[in-house]
Prior knowledge:
Layout: H1 2-13, H2 19-31, H3 38-52, H4 59-74, H5 83-94, H6 101-112, H7 114-122, H8 124-140, H9 145-165, H10 169-193, H11 201-212, H12 215-223, H13 238-248, H14 250-253, H15 256-271, H16 277-290, E1 293-294, E2 305-306, H17 312-325, E3 332-333, E4 336-337, H18 338-355, H19 359-369, H20 373-378, H21 380-388, H22 395-414, H23 418-432, H24 444-447, H25 450-462, H26 466-489, H27 500-517, H28 527-553, H29 558-582, E5 586-588, H30 590-593, H31 611-624, H32 627-643, E6 647-649, E7 653-654, H33 664-675, H34 678-684, H35 694-709, H36 713-720, H37 728-747, H38 753-758, H39 763-771, H40 776-793, H41 807-818, H42 826-847, H43 853-867, H44 879-890, H45 896-904, H46 909-912, H47 914-921, H48 927-931, H49 935-951, H50 958-974, H51 976-985, H52 989-1007, H53 1010-1016, H54 1020-1029, H55 1035-1047, H56 1049-1052, H57 1060-1068, H58 1074-1083, H59 1086-1103, H60 1111-1124, H61 1129-1155, H62 1161-1179, H63 1187-1202, H64 1207-1223, H65 1225-1229, H66 1232-1249, H67 1258-1274, H68 1279-1297, H69 1304-1320, H70 1323-1332, H71 1336-1353
Parallel strand pairs: 5-6
Antiparallel strand pairs: 1-2, 3-4, 6-7
Amino acid sequence: MSSHNTNLSTFLENEEYSIEQHLKIILSVFTGSDLSVLKNKIFALSWMKQKLFDEKLSDDKKNLIYSVLKLCISNTIDVLLYPNISEPILTIILNCYQSSKEILDCFSEILKSSHFLKYFNYHFEKLADIIKLFVRKLNSTEVEIEYKFEAYKNIFNIISKVKNGILNKNSLATIFTDNLIETLSVIVNDIKKTNLEFDLHIVENIFYQVLFDDLEFRNTFLRNLFIDSVASDLDPEKCVKDIINKIKNFPTHFKTDILVTSYSLIFSGFLLSNSDIKSKFKMFIVLNSYIFISPLTLNERNKKCVVLNENIVTANALIELLLEFDLPLNSQMEEFTLMDWLTAFIDAILDKVKIDMNCSILKLLETCFRFSPVLIENCLRKFTKNVMLTKKKTSDLIKTYSDLCLFVLNVHVKLNRMHKLISALLITIKDSLMDFTLEDIPEKFDVLPGEIFERIQVAITNLPSTMQNVVLLNTLLYHLEKDCILSIEQQDSKQVDFRLLLMFDIVTYLISRFIRGTRVADHSVPDIVKDKFSSLMDNLAGLLGKFGKAVISKEHIPKLAECFLYICLVWGDIQLIFMVYEAAPRIIPKQVSVMAKSPTNLVYLHPYLSDYHWKLIAQRVVNFGDENCINLLNDLVLQKIHALPFLEDEILGPYVEDVYNDGPAVVCAHYLSTQSNVKWLFHHVSEFVHLLKPVDILILSKTLVNYCQSCDEEQLTEILFTDFREIRSLVTAMLCYTFHSLSKKLAKFNLKEMKKILRRVDYEEVLKAEINEENNSSVKIIESLLYDIGLVLSENFTYGEDEINENVFRIDLYILKNLPAQYLHRPNKSLMCLLTLSLIKNLIKLQFKNPDVTIILTESSKFLQGILTDVDIPESLDCGKTLAWFYRGLKDTPFCDLVMRRFCELKNCGSQIESVIDIVKATNSEEVNVFIKNKAEGIDLVTSYLINFEKIKKRKHSESGNEVKCKLMKLCYKNYNEVFRTVAENSKQYEKKLALYTLLLHEALKSDDKNRLELLCVHLLDFVQFAEENYSTKSEMVSKFLLVLLKYNNALKTLLPNNFLIDTWCSNCYTFNDDVIRAFIKVNTVEEYCEMMKILLVDTEGVLLEPESENLNNLCRLWKILIETSVKEDKARMKKKIIPRLCHLATKYVILANTDFQLTETSADVMKLFLNIFTTIVRNNKIILQYRVVDLCFDLISSLINVKFDEELLVKCVELLFVFCGVRTALLLDRIPSFYLCYKSLFTEIVRRSDINNSYDIHLMTSSAHKLEKLTDTFAKYKKDFTKTAISAIADCISISMNTNINESVKNHLKNIIYCWIGICDLHGLKYLSSTLSSTDCENLFKQYCANYNKYYKFTGKV
């Protein structure tokens, strides 16, 4: 044994050997099982320690030693028997100063080692040191998140195991408090920053078991919480007192984020214990006192103290834990309860927040409010004064405050106490106004953010009783009169106290929201409520009259005028609703009709002020108002236009106007088009442009386009996608002016063709033709213009030499591209098409000197491709030459083929393409140098045209088209060798030539031309090989080639490889498109078809076990096509046998998704595809459904209901039931109970997801409810069969929906569903329901539904 030691020692000290050789021997020593080499291991560890502490040794060598040390640790035998091995290893690890991946691996290996686990049971302090150092090095070394996450799990795992083996709990708690609480807090903070899932209850459980699991220790801990004296060495409770003192000193030693986590974990661990409620409350109080938060006196030693410093976040975390634990508010300690403590604490917060408002303190306030609404009510006035009426200076603070306000508002809404919140706010504002300075006074949205106003309006709409709205509105009108208008009237000065503006702003905005949110045009609102609301509007009109006169009597203040105009606008909207709802025109007094037709004379709809007052207000707003005021005045003028059709002159009768009769509406429209700012115009011009004359529209379009040219693309995107796009006349005018702008820019580069064209355009006639399609004179003028433009475009040209910057045209092209020119009338669309061709022609002239022009050429091509459909190209335009220069300039752009395909659709393009053929033939012609570079390029143009010509399914003048096609093909065959010569030389040419080859091959096979076929067969196998290699990447092009091979399979069988069809299907069936799959199904024999179905079924069984498989979607797609495709009788019998097995697999898959794995996006998509397959099976009448297939369909829907599926799956389920009812009625009526269970489950799911507190897609839920309503409506045809089911359906629908706050749009459909069932149910069933419903609420709802049904739904049609 001694010799072994000597030999190893001598070897390790011998420097002739490399470190790698030394380490190899050391590794062999550690991996051996001979106990006699124990000292060798100690020598080896000593040598490794010496080398690692050698400063001369490189870091790479040290990392190599650490990697070997890791292997030594993993192969170490029981360290309890040989502690002198574990001690050197830990010495090395604890004294390493580097940070590398190899060192971290050594730490991980120690923590995972079962040998060290036993060692740490007796040396817990060593484990604490290891963990501290490990975490420090983890955070100083760049490692993957997953690696760090796995290391953290190992740390928690070993602590959980070691703590159970330690008998001395006091010693364990002491070491844990000294060394591990801070480290574990760092780990928890690090975990929270990642998106990885981890159950933090594991950490909380560790704190509980280490600190508070032992009853005696816990009692001692609680007994000494309030004792501040230092324990003596002889004190038996010294250990516990020391732990308490250390926890108490955490705020002075830990950073804020560490303190928050450590105190949270300690408190969480204590809450997990079996202590009583009083003890838990006591622990909460003590931890808060440690961070200087004690709003109530605890005892004589701890005096009242609230210091809201950086420990606010810690206090918030502790209170959140208390809230989560749901500690009763009457929990008592000494003389006060939790309610008392929270009340005092909130009071202290509200005192502090007025001085220093920040996000943390607002979050703390919200957390306290969550305990009970009573806490909010007790401090409501102080909250509104100190929090709501304080300026918020940062965006983060505004966001946090909005969340707090939203919570407070939601609490009051749920308790029907919103009136109390609003009254408290307004009273506080009134009482506090005089305390504000000009700098301190908040804005309206500082007090109530915009989303709060939106929520108030929604809450008003959702109030169960409209009478509550009336009461609240009456309160607001009182404040408007007493606190606002009366205050202004009482002021002698011409100026208005700036502090009153806040009151005006909030009151008027609240009144507007209340008015907009009130449901008055609803048959469910009682007439008495409508009358009271109408009376309130009359009262408001009187107040608005006083308000307006008060505004005029003072110096102009934009904010005051804005408040007045906004509430006038809302009042006018309500009057419009009343007029439309009552369907009775309002009579305008005689004195109004004789007034001047001033656009700002708003007496028509707003009679509470005279025309003189409105004139003064309008003058002030136009001369001194800000943008908001001007926009509101414009809104009022626009509102007047909307109201005029519902008004009648006392003498002349109804207002009847058109564009040639300058009545009030035309005057208002002209005013808005000339006086409004451009942003407002873009959003509202569509509402009055129909009243403008063509000249006015042209002037307006110039204004709009000039503004667009001053914007960037982001601003243009926002502007150009507003409602004005629906007005074709305005779009036409803007297009004309944009082309005019482009022509001026092109003229600077000596390109005057477009300017020459536009000089001939009569823009007024163009607009007249767009406004009135039947204006034949304007249409004829445009047709003549088109002919002249065609002549200009057919002229030859020379290429430009000037250098340009492509940014000059970018904005104009962006405007063109985003205007919907494709919806113009045919003559004007043809004009825009020719103007675009002129633009492209001019840009091509510049292209060869300026390569950057290709970018704007592409943009122009996009626009041309969009409008080049259903247009009249004049005969004067030589389409052949046009195509020639177009192809030469744009052949390398992605839009070239698309535009050429559009050209192929034109009426006269086919005949004129012969000019290109002549150009190609005449290789010595001068025109070749102008239009086509050389003969090869000409042939490319011809073949490109031929391919695109063939893609057009429906062509006019087919005889001339076929003649041109024959000439083109003849030219291709004549130059066949030149066309396909490059294919053999360059494999990339296959992609370019495959489309042409497919066309030629199809025509040769179709005409059975053996000579041409023999010529084509030379390259057949080459193209087949290319197709096999590119089925997925070039799917469209290759699929067409494959379709030709399948269609003429018999003719090509001798030329194609053996088993071509089978081999191709087996290797590429998942990548085929639908047409190719259908072709395979029809071409295959019965045996091949059967084999194909069986293989697909086997693949489906295997793939469904792997929900993330890429083939799932393609498999389901294949099945759907196989089911849809009609086949012969022999194949149909095989299909009938396979369908039940497929349905069983689908149901099995959904059940698997419901139980064995969580629903993923892929599995949800597969379920949608399965539902599509089932829908296809049910819809196809040629497939005879077996009863078990029907049962499987219902099983599938029932299984899907239990899965947490998305909204689209719900829509698919409803659609499947709808198809069942419509197509398989007889099968459905035999299984009404099973069908109804699915129906009920879907109804329940729709109700659950339509709760206004949920975040599901409400549009899809509305769609689902609508489809379910249509499905229910079809049951009326089978009333005899569904009468008994209707009794259960009515009871279920009412009970399911009555306890949920359903979104209004969905609720309407659900109500209609109940009305449908009431219509199906007979009289005896309704009587039975009225006497047997489960609850009084349900019974009352049922009676209300029956009453509404008899009143509004039972009878339909006109009386």
